[in-house]
Fold this protein.
Amino acid sequence: MELTREEQSILGGDRGEAARRALQYQIEVGRFWGARRFVPVSNVHMMGDIEVMGDGGLAYLQEQAARGARCVVGTTTNARCMDFAHCEHLGQDAVEAKKERELIAALQRMDVATTDTCINYQTVYQPHLGEHVAWGDTGTVIYANSVFGARSNFESGPAALAAALTGRTPEYGFHLSENRRGTFSVELKSALNDLADWGAVGKLVGESHQNYYAVPVFHGYRRAPTADELKHLGAALASYGSMGMFHFVGVTPEAPSVEAAMGGVSSFEKIVIDEERIEQTLNGYSLGDGDARLVVFSGPQQSLFEMKQLASLFRDRTVKAGSTCVVTTNSAVLRQARDLGYAGTLEKAGVTILQGVCFYILQNLSPMREKNRWTNMVSNSAKIVNIIGAHRFNTILRRTKDCVDIACSGVLI
Amino acid sequence: MKVITVHRAFGPAVEGEAVLSEEGFSPRYDLDRWTGVITKPGHKLEGTSIVDKICFFPTAKGGIAAGWAFYDIKWKKIAPKAFIFGVTNPVMVQGAIFAGIPITEGWSPHPREVLKTGDRVRVDPANRVIELIR
């Protein structure tokens, strides 16, 4: 790779041992992908918690902190595996909770802002068109590339942390214009009135085109989608299809038209998503043994407007005795949701609100499932319905209002 | 000595026993991260240990969390000797390089044409080749 004078100086140790090691690692990643150079990044979002990192990862963080590692750009953290206020009643390990606190302390010593959110793009930082960032999780990356027109690859924890310490990332993948063109088109001929419908679109398109470099171009939709709708679409595309980018004609900044989004290529696959395919998707889930005792609104965390909608649906109702309904969000949204009364309404209805976590990465989730004898998990998020399978839940995607009805009745619909 | 050419590669040369999979891989979705055994129900390698093996997977699955998982299994001494992917993604590469585990992408010919599970192979990332040595 071509290195600037500044990069050579980092490699020579002028910014300390932690930054030198980080850049050396990034050079290896860049070489693998044939990157010619680095691009400066202005923001980093990283995944780092004890459930994903384990003892080895924690030891590495502590070593880097001891070497004087410091972030040189604004750096935030993704949702983590514990909300300390709920650890005990969720049956999470006290030993792991202690490690999680040590891990957070190590990140803070490096100047990481531990925001613990997977919706940084809705609440913390909104990059502009063409801005290079180094983000993970996948839902944040696809939103950055698609909706903002910013440029990021999927940056896993170690890669994002390295970018935070050096202020740059290797130039490959979605940092390059040639990889940002659409590769197939999707005409939306469905009403898509619920977030679950947007997730179903992501499932249909993602499952059938699994490829990091597949870039769908959506068009033909009857109105401008909301941020929450695009969030569920993107999260599902990334989850089912490993995709890092989409275009939405007339909505996302690099797609004034189908032709422009395709970069002048005129021959490409064209698919159509109509009402029937959405209904088939929603009706296609096995109800397992009929267990309706777990309803989850998470993956991604809830925005303020999702909290508002849930509060309105749960008003004057109660979660069925013996059932559990979990909502996850970040501290900023929760604070505002409290001030506005949404959180109070949800808690009065018996909903458990967890802060700074995502349900599917909760530490000790499998034992939690066994202890509660949960077999099914119902959610309006197509992403969480996909990724929680490793914990051996049978999962069911339902529209938001149906999820609330299931939580309050204990009966699947 | 049959040879597979790979398109991209990282890491030192290693020798070991090949495990060929017809299904993609995620260290988060498919692997028991305490034993190194693939435990996902229905995975085509369900019940197979990848510890110290040279693992051939057609594709990579999963999200960002996989990036820390390779370091985690290396720390627990249950990592494979190398990952050989048909098509991979940035997270797998970032994770394997961070853990110091050799990784390659792209293959010609397809491994199933020249190898089977249990064969002893040598992965030579510097020369972008994999050889059958027995």
Chain B touches chain A at residues 8-10, 28-30, 33, 40-41, 59-61, 63-69, 71-72, 74-76, 87, 89-91, 93-95, 97-98, 103, 105 (CB under 8 Å).
